[in-house]
Amino acid sequence: MARVATRSQRATAADAWSLAGRLVTSWAFLLPTLIFFLGWQLYPVIRVLWLSFTDYHYLRTDAPVHWVWFQNYADAFRDPLVWRGLLRAALFTALFLPGMIFIPMVVAVLVDRVRNPKLATIYRVILLIPSMIPGPLIFVLWKWLYSYNIGPINYLLVDVLGLFTLRNAPRWLGDPTLVFPSLAVMEWWWGLGYHTMFFLAGLATIPRELYDAARVDGANEWRIFWHITFPRLQPILLVLVVLRFGTAMAVIDEYLIMGGFNRALPTYTWTVYMWDLGFQLGDWNQSYAAAVGWIGALAMLIVVAGLFWLFRSRD
Amino acid sequence: MTPFVEMQALIEAGVIEPWDDYMPQEVKDDLIPSIKEEAMFDGKIYNWPFLLDVVIQGWNKEIVEKAGLDPTKPPANWDEYLANARKVVESGAAPFGCTFDAHGWRSLVPITHSISTDVYTEEGLFDFTSDAAVQALEIMKQMMELANPNVLDPGTSDGGVNDTPDEGAFAAQQVAYYVKYQNAHIRMAATWPDPSQLQLAALPQAEGGAGATVFWNTGAALFTYGQNKELAAEYMKALTYSEDVFKESIAGGTAASGQLPVYTSMWEKWKQNRLEWMADWAFLVGDQLPMSKAIRTTKYGVTQFNLGQPHWEKYLKGEESDPRKAMQAAMDAVMAEVQKSG
After folding, report:
1. Could you list the residue range(s) of the whole structural domain that residue B98 is in?
2. What is the distance between the alpha carbons of residues B201 and B192, in angstroms, rounded to a whole number?
3. Cross-chain CB nearest to B159 (options A169, A260, A284)
4. What is the predicted pLDDT for the residue at B20?
5. Which of A140, A206, A301, B107 is the most exposed place for a label (fewest CB within 10 A)?
6. In a 3-state reduction of DSSP, which class is residue B100?
7. Share above pLDDT 90 across residues of chain B, in percent, rounded to a whole number
8. pTM value?
């Protein structure tokens, strides 16, 4: 019995060491992700939440910070610029999102039909080129294309086709009615290849037999798309709609670079207002900017929840 | 660092300290008084001035000549400026007569300063409601009628501040006369087939006005937690007194930046012994400096113009017929933000 007990004790000790070893290894692998998650994701969110309940101004270095409860939120709810800014962002999103989703979907369906492997690869590479270009270069390229005085688009419209004169040519980035469509087209071009790849991946999972069977049953291509392709691309659609809704509502780089801080411009959205408040105006009222940011984030989360409900599984 | 843009914020954030203990007394005494005033905050020098931008006028000699005007003679006042610009359009020499940068500190303020420099409130804010500012807005309205139609559009880089429509029009040789800081004229003319067609001169004056303009310096700030501060001061002194730097800046052809020296002694020396590379325009602009003024350093140095612009632009766009009402709305918008943001 004594020998059995000793063997059992030895086994328990070995198990304990093995468990400890596994724990150490697991935590060692987990630690970088944990540090990243806590330090780079969770902490800023909590910090901004805390700021939004205070009267913290970055440049009031000697002034004590007070807890003001919901004062910043109450002020923000009464601030017409917050609502106007959210509405402007929503307008851009409404323009941007359909093109950003449906154009790549159609392109993916077309590319998916190319049976020559070399040609199919060439199409994919060409489509991906814009997404390989860094943002600043995209902006430089498109602001030149859109330039009123020296851009090739207006050159074509004014000098070549004679459809406009230098006095009434389209102000692509300056006209309040044109700036959002112009930016949306730029974004569509930029994201076309990247989003097409998502849909191509989705299309690859659809069994070919379904198409063959449908064709044998006499379904035309339009019906095949709506009844076979489209429903099976819905998971991809959900991911893209949610991702791109978030990025469209929160666009700031394009507006900051091309729009400026004139509050009458459509590009002065809630994100630009937040930046203006937090890093430019007066004493840099970052507590109020944080409240504006949280209101925007909550508004977006509500819409995202609605999107999840809309795209819920009906199986 | 440009004082009216960011100096106060950097001071309040505690990241810069005054140069006073490191800048030699003879250098302090040598700074052009209006430039020294710009470099100071609370009686201390926080900015070692270096790259001096002055809002001036420039024109395309070829277009002006084509319009039947004397291309060597700058318009002396705003009436002449507008008459010349109108003649350019009417003669068909160019599609547009004149242009300007719609950002307030690059057009509204310099034109105002040409009328009066006494246009700041006790807190240092630009007084949009002053008679001079209202008169400047009326001049801008007349300029706008002769300008490229996109003149009020934002720029397409750096927060809408740069790559502005005026630059595009001047570079494309679609406009004759142009009000902006000298670097813009030089950069845009560098794209012309013949950049020597560029002419520069001091800003036109207003009849009976102050005859001033606006300038700003992009200078050096001294970081509080920096090191080798004595060496930094020695370097800045050598750099800002270097004739080679200004030779390249003024006469460097298409590589010139147009920035001018900030010391009285350098200007006096050049006037007494004119160097062969020195351009006439530099003296014309230099002569306007002593009476000119920088925008006052406040926390709203630049942002006051962002806040006011949507309101004064209503007058320029014809949405408001009374310039005084438009300017009052601009002032109200600034004051509302001052009260809100501190």
Report:
1. 54-213+302-341
2. 19
3. A260
4. 97
5. A301
6. strand
7. 88
8. 0.90
